[in-house]
Amino acid sequence: MCDYFEQKDSVAQCIGTDVAPVLKTIAGHYIDSHPPKPPVYRPCSTLGFRCTDDYLLEIKLHDKFPDMKLESYAYAWGMLKVPAEGNYNFRFAAYGPVFVYVNGEYVYRSGLYEERFSTALTNMSLKLKEGENSILFLCVRTPLGCGCRVGAGSYKGMRIAFYSPTLEKKGMSGMIYSEPMDRPLEELPRLWQSEAEIPVRWYPRTEWNSDEKALTPIRRIYGGNSGLYLSASAFVCDGSADVTVTGRLKNCRRLWIDRVSVTPWEGDGSVAVSAGPGRHTLLVLAEDCKLNCGGASLECPVPLENTQHHLNWLYAGPFTPDADLDLDRVLSFKKPLPATGGDTFWRTDQPGCYLRIFNESVNFGEWSYPLGVTLYGMLQTARMTGSREMDAYITAHLEQSASHFEYCQWDKHAFGAASFHHLLTTLDSLDDCGSFGSMMLEYMKDHELADGRVIADYIAEYIRDRQQRLPDGTFYRNHSYIKIMDETMWADDMYMSIPFLCRYYQLSGDAAFLDDAARQVKNFKKYLYMPDLQIMSHIYDVHYGLQTKVPWGRGNGWVLFSTTELLAVLPEDHPDYPEILAFFREMCSGVLRLQGPEGMWRQVLTFPDSYKETSCTAMFLYAFSRGVRYGWLTDPALYREAVNKGWKALCGISVDKYGNVYGVCRGSGYSFSKEYYANDLSWRLNDTHGIGIVMLAGIETEKMNDMPGGSNH
């Protein structure tokens, strides 16, 4: 019966099919595999290379060295961390000849076409090892330029960040680059090698010259700009200690130690404080300041990642004397600050350097549509089981994601592309916002989430005013970053929109969002429904005016799943309610006929040779269970039987005793042929498109069986 592992290792055999223990096993495995991990702070120089808004790093050496001789050479070099060994695809374009070295091995060279047409992007595949990789570009100056552009093959799917690779710049964000030279280096530089050992100068500079060192930090960072500046540091006491803060202040308006205001002084002075064990913050608002701490060592107020620099102060400004500075905002070190001339962020005592925040976890704290489904399932599981551990995990994930949204908007403006939140800061599709946004709104029904409403309003404005629509108002995809998606309508987009629209209607009370959700169900049916089969085509190709006629399992799952989300909140007297309910019943009937004898549905619903697919099976169980529970289905006994058979199948076929989830189709493209879906679009272990959906299926199965007539009643 089991296609993915030995039957004896299934969760059904080892734990059983009772819903709560199964869901706790799945959720526990996910949490253990993706533990909470805080964001990482790294200094980044504005004197380096800038990204475009689609995450291409512009390595323009001809701009850095306008007098660079023809046929001379220069290097651009960075460290790139990846979570697993494998081949990684990059978008690449060249301004001239470029030779690429990975971990000291020559692996790629630009072609003649690339070297002539710098706007032409090509795919460059690089084999990388797990962890840290040295990526070195040797660039040749020609009359057309010198350098290249490079970025992740799919910046929506994978965000990459190059970090500085030398010992002196370890922990800093951004590539470094060499001065021009007449010939390439005889020996390639090694990762974390000292720059002193490499016979060429590297930029951007991170040390001050002798004249700059003679100035105070504020003066050398900000020059002669007038105004007030924040200076922040911290000190740690192993036990209770008398600490003396001493130094020079100029026009100091406020001095805080652990948020307690201390009387400042003008010129040289000091203040003694009794400090208990632990970490203490020191914050100054002054025109200029240079302070030390007697009795304790000063350190950076945020943890800097692997930095080799002794950076124990951060600076921000300038501010006007009447600036309204919120201490919670200031000392969070994750919000832009309202300075003179616009928002700013913290700077380090290095030439042109700001602090940047990176989320380097694969999943934790991230925002994506599969994670939206995963956390939705975990949220409902936490509610059902009363698990405080799960609730705390979801809260930590959401707070980390939401609390950095405002910072990432500033970061995009400052550096061209945000250090994370790459979907919300490049919002141009329902995939970017709807699924996770819907889960966030569900969470906010019984939790507080700072910044949650701001993000929800931002998403609602996008869907209402900027999402691409056909003339009849139906959502579709156009001007996509992946050209094959242009002029297409996807069944998936019902889930990427309708649940959010329903929950935003509940939050705001604006019925226009509920009406839009109802319109989408009716219109998606108009374009995608195949009445002879009573199921949906995955895609409607607007360019050709044709359905692809392939009934992909998960695509149909999204449709039924989303329709139940709407029916659960749509008033029965709404004018569209009868039509939507009739469609739900009709499609459920079509899907029911295609359930396999073991209880699963196939990757291509009408192609029995395709694999048993977990996520669509779970979504059909979810929809059927709700249909029985809400009284939407006219033959509840038939659907109750299908649900219970399907749940036993998931426990016996798709979930093992450790909580691993098998048989979930990876993220899809599309085709007019079932061959792509059945043979090319393979499943992945613990794919986040399916983990949460399995949990949701279990919850709804349990609720259905708790009803009168159910197996638990």
| CATH architectural label of the largest domain | Alpha/alpha barrel
Helicity range of the residues?
Answer: 25-40%
Shape: globular
* Overall mean confidence score, pLDDT: 95
> Would you tell me which CATH topology of the largest domain applies?
Glycosyltransferase
Flag low-confidence runs: none
> How many strands, which pairing sense, and closed or not: the largest β-sheet?
6 strands, antiparallel
Which structural class best describes the helix and strand composition?
alpha+beta
Number of strands: 32
Sequence of strands across the biggest β-sheet:
6-5-8-3-10-11
**Name of the CATH first level of the largest domain:** Mainly Alpha
Structure description:
There is one protein chain. This protein has 713 residues and is of the alpha+beta class. Helices cover 33% and strands 22% of the residues. The strands form ten sheets. Strands 6-5-8-3-10-11 form a six-stranded antiparallel beta sheet, with no helix packed on it. Helix 15 packs across helix 17, helix 18 packs antiparallel against helix 19 and helix 19 crosses helix 21. The protein is globular and about 85 Å long.
